[in-house]
Amino acid sequence: MPIDKQTERTQPRLNVVTTAAEQPLSILLVDSDETSFHKARHILKGLPIASLKFATDTKAASDMAAAEHFDLVVVDPVVPGGFDLLKEIKDKYRWVATLVATANQTPSFMRQAVKCRIDGLLFRPMTSEEFVEQVLLLARAVNVRRQRQQKRVLAIGAHPDDVEIGCGGTLARHRAKGDVLNILTLSRGAAGGDVNVRMAEAYRAADLLGAKLHLANLRDTHISEGGKTIEIIETAVREVRPTHVYTHCSEDTHQDHRAAHAASLVATRDVPNVYCYQSPSSTVDFSPQRFVDITPFIKQKVKAIDAYHSQVERMESIQNDLIVATARYWGRFAGHVLAEPLKVIRERTGDISRAPEDEQSASNPMLAANQE
Asked: What is the pTM of this model?
């Protein structure tokens, strides 16, 4: 992505917007010409850049994108596999902006670039001002989009494995859309096995779902619906500031589940979207109004449940075939192959059933225009 010095001297200087995003930016530059990296580093010097990384091939770029967070990826698609990399970035990392910097202006090239859902396009030769302006504008745009669309999810369970069983597929769906996941487990499951084993399993399952685990230490089988339980949930709500909460339902034969439900309703009274999930101990009175399509995410759900080896070995209700069969049963109520049922307590901005690719298309005017 070389900057043309002659162009920089002869073209009028742009009024560059210098107000960057609130957080320092992390940028990945992918170009076969290593001098592009040194020029970009010089141009961006003095701006709020947390890190500027460089890759000369798409394999290295893909590995770097998986290992750390970037706000912006700049690619010259003449690098072999450049278009595939752009698609991968958009498919896997919804909140990362992509900028194409190239000398190719042919119609076929442009069509390919638009199909990759790019956020910005610069043609070489370009001035330093043009490059800086585009970087800052894209960074601000992606941050605004993240703040407007990204959901913060808090899933509450009385014991380790409750959340994964009840709404693991829904959480995986949220994660695929780029939402932030948090799991609050109120007890450490001492009544169901060794506490240290269950804690390790809980962290493993949360990691598989891409969630942060908040692990409390209430007494298993003695969780109350008042005082301390409400305080723990309120603390998590203040920290996470959730837009969506998933918790136990009241129609349940387990006293801890009922208590967690009651405490959750008090502690999440200001959360706009609150849902209740089904547990193996839920009664036939459980009456869901929402059915979330988890067909693409059933393997993730099963894998997260399988992380609880100590429980899978002793509980028939969480065997793989029964988990899938239960999802298939609920799927028939909403035209899905596999679904998770949810009881709606409150729903003000709920769109958890919307496909990730649909929402991403709607937020990208270049892609939307290409599809019309």
From this structure: 0.72
Residue 304: which residues within 8 A CB-CB, separation 6 or more? 164, 168, 172, 205, 208, 209
DSSP conformation letters of 18-32: ----SSPEEEEEE-S
| Mean pLDDT on 43-52 | 82
Same fold, 25-148 and 151-347: yes
CATH number of 151-347: 3.40.50.10320
> Could you give the dihedral angle defined by the CA atoms of residues 179, 363, 93 and 80, in that order, rounded to the nearest 10 degrees?
170
Question: In terms of DSSP H, where are the helices of 71-124?
Answer: 82-92, 107-115
User: What CATH number should be reported for the domain whose range is 25-148?
Assistant: 3.40.50.2300
C-alpha neighbours within 13 Å on the C-beta side of residue 272: 10
Considering only 135-139, 303-307, 349-353, which range has the smallest mean pLDDT? 349-353
Residues forming a β-bridge with 246 = 155, 275
Q: At 368, is the pLDDT very low, low, confident or very high (cuts 50, 70, 90)?
A: very low
- Smallest CA-to-CA distance from 14 within 144, 141, 126, 98 is with 126
For the record, the structure tokens of 217 come out as: 């230490």
As a whole number of angstroms, the distance between CA 235 and CA 239 comes to 6
Tell me the pLDDT tens digit for each residue of 266-286: 999 999 999 999 999 999 999
137: pLDDT strictly greater than 50: yes
Asked if residue 51 has pLDDT above 50, the reply is: yes
Helix axes of 227-240 and 255-267: crossing angle, nearest 10 degrees: 50
Distance of CA 137 to CAs 7, 15, 17, 194, 218, Å?
A: 22, 13, 8, 52, 48
